[in-house]
Design brief:
Oligomer: single chain
Distance between the termini: 28 Å
Number of helices: 12
Largest sheet: 9 strands, mixed
Number of strands: 28
Structural class: alpha/beta
Amino acid sequence: MSDVSSNGVPADGGSPRRGPATDVLVVGYGPVGSVLSVLLAQRGWRVTVLERRRRPYTLPRATSFDGETARLLAGTGIGGELGRITEPGTGYRWRTADGETLLDIAFTTEGPYGWPDANTMHQPALEELLAARAARLPGITVLRDRRVVDISEGPAGVTVTAEDDEGTAQTFEARWVVGCDGANSFVRERMGVSVTDLGFSYEWLLCDVELREPREFAPTNVQLCDPARPTTLVGSGPGHRRWEFMRLPGERAADLNREETAWRLLAPYGVTPETARLLRSTTYIFQARWTDDWRAGRVLLAGDAAHLMPPFAGQGMCSGIRDVTGLAWRLDLVLRGSAPESLLDTYTEERKAQVRESILASVQLGRLICVTDPAAAKERDATVLANRRGRGPGRPDPARPITRGLLHLPEGAGAQTRVPPAGEVLPHARLHGPSGAEPLEDPVARGFVLFAEAEAELGLTADRLAFLRDLGAEVVRLRPAAGSYDGADGVVDAVDADGVLRGFLARYGATAVLVRPDYHVFGAAAGPAATTALVDDLRARLTAPAPATAGHTG
């Protein structure tokens, strides 16, 4: 390779090598970047991925994902393989130093979103699945050993310059760039956006182990709220576990970050060199922060590049997957000219608000867990135990709704007033064809869907049906039982096998519900006039003129 100068230009004065033009360039190839790449390629777009690592990272970071995220991952085409690399979690329990239960959440393998409530996994196995899926899609080009060193935006797109380990520079042209490049994101730094940091951080020793023999841990996940050493025990997929030990006040990080320290702390749990292999022991400092703007012109952020949170709610990677699921369908609509660029501003609006809530919730949990003063811990325990006296195990909270952004606001609602079920996450439903025999593929995974009661009059004119068709949306009538139905043109008849969606409509007094490709409800309607207004609102939101670009990199 030719010699290059420090600014990436070949030493002979020539220009950096030019890579192929692409629709979307993704920086970073962890789970978040992988999912975004696949979702876009499945929609027919050219995607180039630049990853700084020469080889896949073989150690885990995240250890689990929830049922909502499992459904989103299944939308990338790997649903049939997820069961092979995961183990369902059985529960999450907080215990005091004396063994009393402060919090007890029971997980089920049949959660409301079609997957187990908690799915423990060895992250490298998940990344292998996603990489294999990407390799089967012709639109994706993955380039490793590419460190992005410059981003500049022009009238028609973005120019990205990357260097390999030898310093050879290459430029790439893209219509859009998405930074999925982690906590130390170069893309975020280049955008020059501000960050809100809550200043809540503690250092922990992380120990990933591979068990030599199968062992049962019940429940799967435990939080020891012992002021002598707050400790986390979680499953991380078949044959793998993770322990995390908080660094105590006055304890030197260098003393904690030693292999002999890891084995000493693991020994009380029956984890020794004879029973397990230590894959990694390292200290890390969690943070609680979010980027204030996730878009600057044609450059966007997702995942850890946009937000970081304490680990106690297990929502870090899950939030990143939600980011790119919501971003992929927006980019698709913008790229094919079905929506203005201003649609992407609702991405930041929605995701930042939801992530902020998740971070604040994680911080609240952390303030309860990271207590090392015995007197404060005793007071905490007494308060929590008094409040939960007589209660059995609880259930996980439902998926967090979005509260702003691309949501239907009925006439008379305030400008920022969410009217449920708008923003809620649609529950999973088993749908079958009219005969009741053949199962139907999940239509939401393909785009917008208008679900309607079988008996409801929709009142949709030909031009409104044409709008939905051009959008790639489906209209699905929910039948209570199998039968012979004369489906109207452009309308799919489906048997709602368990009555889940018909029950969802009834709960909100609705006859139709319009669902987005990320399973969030755009809005619901009762009667033909309201259904017409619902569709018209979506059309207006997707065809509104774009405002001036908020900002540019470069």
